[in-house]
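$ ./design --mode recover --in tokens.txt
reading tokens...
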């Protein structure tokens, strides 16, 4: 089989790595298309290196821009490649613009689409990702959903349950496969900024990431989050900063304010192996990232999510994640509850991971092969 993958951002590379390995291990032909949405070395190339992935066959180099411009350029580029290469199936992952562009182009060329991490819903249509998820799910043929809850979302949108397969989330494959490799490295192999912080000998680590438009593009919300960070003086806050966030902090004149506190360490985004080590040494994770909510519960670290809703409600109902939004007092109340109350912290750490055992890529490929063999991938009129 010729299996194509469209990806374009950091989390897609990480979450498709095990699927790519599985495609290659099973002897299928892999056609890897990078949209070029993320292009900085530390947002893209580093992950191909860390995860030992083959380089993309095509890079569309869309770069940054408005949603319409970015998605339009992606669609044109992906269409040209698919017409030329004629894959048997196209896989997309998650909810970025690559997912929207890849799924729409493929379905119109009558190439079946498999959506990895399908069925997630925040029910918040102000999020661009919610629109991407829903549009991709209308265009897909196979739905690889992480949990029963995401399966129910799709079935309640009238998608045939025969095409919805609960597989867990490939993020667990990524964590389990790489944490051991990461931990067995010497500190000299860490990226310089992380090595300089000497995290192996650091206590009270709080790992912070944020990049969601609704947080980082709104000065008042950013300020409120920063005010909470300033109060967390006993923590070593390590903040590998997303390029979007660096730019908006600079534009709002807030980067200097953050940099003036000794307990806040702003560093460049780090590679996956370094980041896993950092997470595993953390007492607490503060984030608005989708992937981090999943990794936190996989690695048994309490998470506070800087959002008012989540498309990962399983992490909250399991007890490993609390939604704190961007309100300073709510962030601090919950952080201190975890930091000062070991029983509460332990309860969060022991929350059951809803995303499977780390065998997701294997299940996805087994399913694709079965549908292909039974001639059930073709679109029917
Ligand atoms: C994108 C995804 C988001 C995902 C995130 C993962 C969409 C709509 N958004 O958001 O769902 O959670 O990736 O990180 O697809 N920039 C750089 N260098 C880069 C990439 C971006 O400097 O390599 C800067 C540019 O100023 C750009 C901004 O970051 O305008 C935002 O980048 P963009 O790719 O549009 O969105 P993300 O916020 O990264
Ligand atoms: N990540 C990383 N280095 C960093 C920050 C994050 O490797 O400096 C990884 C993290 O482990 C997770 C993924 O990037 O797997 C999450 O990406 P991001 O938060 O950008 O996107 P989202 O998951 O919100 O779509």
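writing sequence...
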């Amino acid at each position: 089989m010729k299996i194509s993958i469209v990806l374009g951002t950091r989390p897609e590379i990480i979450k498709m790595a095990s699927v790519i390995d599985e495609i290659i291990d099973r002897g299928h032909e892999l056609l890897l298309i990078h949209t070029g949405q993320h292009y900085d070395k530390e947002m893209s190339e580093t992950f191909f290196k860390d995860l030992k992935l083959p380089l993309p066959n095509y890079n569309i180099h869309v770069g940054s821009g408005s949603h319409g411009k970015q998605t339009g350029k992606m669609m044109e580029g992906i269409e040209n490649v698919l017409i030329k290469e004629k894959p048997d199936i196209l896989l997309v992952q998650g909810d970025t613009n690559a997912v929207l562009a890849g799924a729409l182009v493929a379905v119109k060329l009558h190439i079946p689409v498999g959506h990895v991490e399908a069925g997630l819903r925040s029910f918040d249509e102000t999020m661009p990702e919610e629109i991407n998820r829903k549009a991709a799910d209308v265009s897909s043929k196979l739905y690889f959903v992480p949990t029963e809850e995401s399966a129910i979302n799709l079935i309640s949108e009238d998608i045939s349950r025969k095409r919805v397969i609960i597989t867990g989330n490939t993020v667990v494959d990524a964590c389990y496969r790489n944490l051991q490799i990461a931990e067995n490295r010497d500190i000299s192999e860490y990226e310089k900024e992380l090595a300089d912080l000497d995290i192996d000998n650091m206590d009270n680590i709080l790992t912070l990431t944020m990049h969601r438009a609704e947080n980082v593009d709104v000065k008042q919300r950013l300020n409120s989050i920063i005010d909470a960070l300033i109060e967390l003086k006993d923590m070593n806050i390590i903040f590998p900063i997303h390029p979007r966030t660096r730019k908006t902090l600079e534009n709002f004149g807030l980067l200097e304010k953050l940099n003036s506190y000794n307990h806040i360490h702003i560093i460049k985004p780090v590679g996956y192996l370094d980041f896993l080590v950092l997470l595993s040494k953390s007492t607490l994770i503060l984030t608005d990232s989708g992937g981090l909510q999943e990794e936190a519960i996989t690695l048994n670290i309490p998470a506070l999510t800087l959002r008012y809703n989540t498309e990962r409600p399983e992490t909250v109902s399991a007890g490993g994640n609390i939604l704190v939004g961007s309100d300073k007092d709510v962030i601090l109340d919950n952080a201190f509850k975890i930091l000062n109350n070991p029983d509460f912290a332990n309860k969060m750490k022991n929350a059951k991971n809803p995303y499977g055992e780390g065998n997701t890529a294997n299940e996805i490929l087994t399913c694709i092969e079965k549908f292909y063999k039974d001639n059930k991938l073709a679109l029917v009129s």
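exit 0
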